[in-house]
Amino acid sequence: MNSGGSSPERTTCLVVGGGPAGLVLGLLMARAGVAVTVLEKHGDFLRDFRGDTVHASTLTLLDELGLGARFAALPQRRMERAQVQFDSGIAQVADLSRLPGAHRHIAMVPQWDFLDLVADAAQTEPTFTLRRNAEVVGLLHDGGRVAGVRYRDRTDGTEHALRAGLTVACDGRASAVRTAAGLVPRSFGVPMDVWWFRLPRLDGDPVGGVGRISTGQFAVMIDRGDYWQCAYLIGKGADAEMRAAGVEAFRARVAGLLPWLADRLDALTSLDEVKLLDVRLERLRRWHRDGLLLIGDAAHAMSPVGGVGINLAVADAVATARLLAPALRSGGIVPRSLLRRVQRRRWWPTAVIQGGQRLAHRAILGSRTGAPGAPGPASADVPVSGLLGPQDGAALAPAAALPLPLRLLRRFPVLQGIPARLIAIGPLPEHAPVWARRDAEADAPRASAS
């Protein structure tokens, strides 16, 4: 690599961020024959508490890319229905078996496995480069146009410049590129944050996941095989007060909400083991500048409701590659009109999903927080679409206790295909361009990570 004082290196497409959107975009651009470099801030993908749901539309995309068999070989859990558990019993809100296509489920796979799979496939392409430990610290400009980035090598602290015909920011909701570009997202207020922690999973526990709603409390447990990755919603800004109450008080909360976990709560020895997710719901008014495009969470941070953030970001990446790769392949400079086309295509599904999440926040959590750590004055009889299934054998909630939409879903099960499609496929699924498709049999063997 060149030092900051030397002539900067060049690439045609520069992708900042090696998450799902960044690596999928890098793979697609490389398969188009575009020289593409992905800068990833960290040295590996082994980080906890990241989204681990791969939805049906992304599974279809992997098939189209010739990666479906590799993905299917990864250790995973599958969710085929979306249910919620109330104080009065359970209610099913979505039946994924009614989805069209080959994938009638959502796969729960550690995100590092998914990212390794995509990165390995991309590194078999001669025009793809992945640079790890590369932290963006600023933008390069050519007049008023973004012309690349300055980044720091976190292994030795040296700074480097990398010029590009197009820079795409996929570096998440705390995007360094977005900040450097002076772009400020519109923020939609949210009433909650999330505490993430782990508890042991025992034989006989539910498979796939557990969702639980009670008055003022809401938790989701994701099945990791030998442990549960647990999400417990707290009131927005309640983290300090909750921590001051101590670990025993929190154990008591979890035991009251989920009595079947009480026998293992001693495994949570300290609130230092509990990580805070500062929930945001944001969207840029403009996703681009000349020479720069922002997609995924960098353009629109999503609430965890429904777990759709990864699915949406990957769809952004596919649309970006399909619309921009031909221009990059032929000339290396993408006109502003094409960047606007990407935003126009992906804006409305983003707005629809975020609108649904805002409705869920108001319906489930309320607009104000209640007791310390508890999301607002929620009713125990209101569902959240996209939660995971409750413990097998739990009784059905009485129909009279359910709101009208859930009563209709129970009476007419065919209607459960509608929320299933919204959760697992989304309002505008994107498909791999013809030039990026591969047959599984012809797919190259796994390459070692650089």
Task: Summarize this structure as a short list of keywords or feature phrases.
24% strand; alpha+beta; eight-stranded mixed beta sheet; disordered C terminus; 11 helices; 20 strands; disordered N terminus; single chain; D-Amino Acid Oxidase, Chain A, domain 2
Low-confidence stretches: 1-5, 367-372, 374-393, 443-450
Total E-strand runs: 20
Largest sheet: 8 strands, mixed
**Chain-averaged pLDDT:** 84
Q: Tell me, briefly, the overall form.
A: globular
Sheet/helix structural class:
alpha+beta
Distance between the termini: 14 Å
Strand content: 15-25%
Radius of gyration: 22 Å
CATH-assigned homologous superfamily of the largest domain: FAD/NAD(P)-binding domain
CATH topology of the largest domain: FAD/NAD(P)-binding domain
Number of domains: 2
Helix content class? 25-40%
CATH class of the largest domain: Alpha Beta
Number of helices: 11
CATH architecture of the largest domain: 3-Layer(bba) Sandwich
